[in-house]
Amino acid sequence: MTRRQYIILIVYLLLLTLSIPWYWPADNLTLVAGVPTWVLSVIIVGLAVAILTAWNLLTDNESDEDE
Amino acid sequence: MSEILPFGPGAWIFISFYIGSLLIVGAVAYRAREENTLKDFYLAGSGFGFTVLLLTLYASQYSGNSLFGFTGMTYRIGYSWILSLHFMISIVVFYQLIAVRLFRLAKVNTFITPVDFLHHRFQSKAISLIAAVVMILALSNFLLAQLMAMGRAMQGLAGAHGDQAYQYGVVVLALIMVIYGTLGGIRAVAWTDMLQGLVLTAGFLMLMVMLYFEFGSLTLATDKILASNDASMVNKIMPPDAARMREWLSYVLIVGMGGALYPHAIQRIYAARSEKILRRSLAVMVFLPFITILIAVSTGIYAIAYVEGLEGAASDQVLGSILRQIQESSFLGYTLVVVLFAAILSAIMSTADSALLSISSMLSKDIYAKFVNRNAQEAQLTRLGKLCSWALIIILVGFAIALREQSSLVKLLDRKFDILVQLVPAFMLGIRWKAMQALPTFIGIVTGLMIALGLAYGPFEFVQAGKIWGFHPGLYGLLLNVFIAVSGSVYLVRREQGRAV
Fold it and tell me: A-side interface with B, Cβ within 8 Å?
């Protein structure tokens, strides 16, 4: 694996950890525009995953070398 | 759709015109064929450009389940079903491991089916056969579910004649699908997918507008749920508990990896005109769940607020209840529901036609040409593929009609992701790690399948709602599968190196 791939993998794992809302209190009831804040955080992390994926697809130029 | 009001003649003319247009697309695709080869029939010769590739990937990834099932799930568990946003995104994340390399290899080696890659990589008949069987079984069950969904969609519109409408719905829609599929092959399927993808997107957006005008903002719906005295309803707004969060992780992994190995999607990767087009299509596709999933989940939240008392399997029909309220409100509401119904048919048919074509290609190329008649000519295999499509659709239509009351049985059979992920090491490791060996890969697949199916269907008390500690059985099988494939390959390579020294 290249250095770039290692960094991307670490960022994905970090985003995966943040995508599951374990860090919100179980009784959290704050809302923004009718949507719970914990749901908004999940959507924002999803957006970050999508942006990272799109960026990687459009800029990566990997060879078919063995890893 | 059993809650929806029967349509009038105008609506039926619109639906018939839309369905008829699919046949016209099939005929145009037939005329566009370049040669009578497998590559032309299953991969459209020189391949698809950006728009067609994006929309065909989109339409074949989102089935009838995306609207009905996802709305129903949100109705049952609340905002926690936002997890579906992440598992749909994760499909594209996992595509990064295989898509570009598969595309490059497919262009050089003229791959037609996903199994062609495995055959090229491992040169093992055992791996090719088991992979073909796993993919055909997974897709056949998926296709059966779509045929039954077609019948149910029609049944709901026919009022007192629902039983007959179910049968006619399954037969007529399956017939139309097999006609355009066998006429124009992947071109017909992808071009109709393009039409269906546009109708589906319009349907999703229209649904959101309809909900806003009928029920008001999402804030009102959430406030109504919070004002309820029912603690179970208020819980649907709260963050998920630990068990649900384990299930969340399980879904992201199993749907992400399994969805990336859908055979019909892999064939679309092969059919991209260029690597740049493939990369751009996937880069846009990763954002599409933000339209479809967010609207499906929002619809489920509206349903929690405004539709009371649906439980169990009936909750899967909650979209029908919502649509009925919109239909009764005004003529505009009625018209919008007709268009949305066309979108629902689109979602079902675009998934079903892709699955059917993919199965027929694997039956003719991976089973017949590899194990029955190794000297078969291209034209013969293409003809056989078409025959397989007809035979398969006749059998599955029979099942769809016979099993119509057995939806729980069909759900029980639906372990497609649990079995598909057992091919993850062969594809995702095999394409990136040249030291991977055929024998341990095969043993890993067999062991993974036995564990996944054994846990899913065995009489184990620790398996609850089809999962163990919140995780799908397929992931337990995959864990051992990967261990066997990797450790076995390392052992064989070292043994070989030891002999060489």
Answer: 12, 16, 19-22, 24-29, 31, 33-36, 38-39, 42-43, 46-47, 49-50, 53-54, 56-58, 60, 62, 64, 66-67
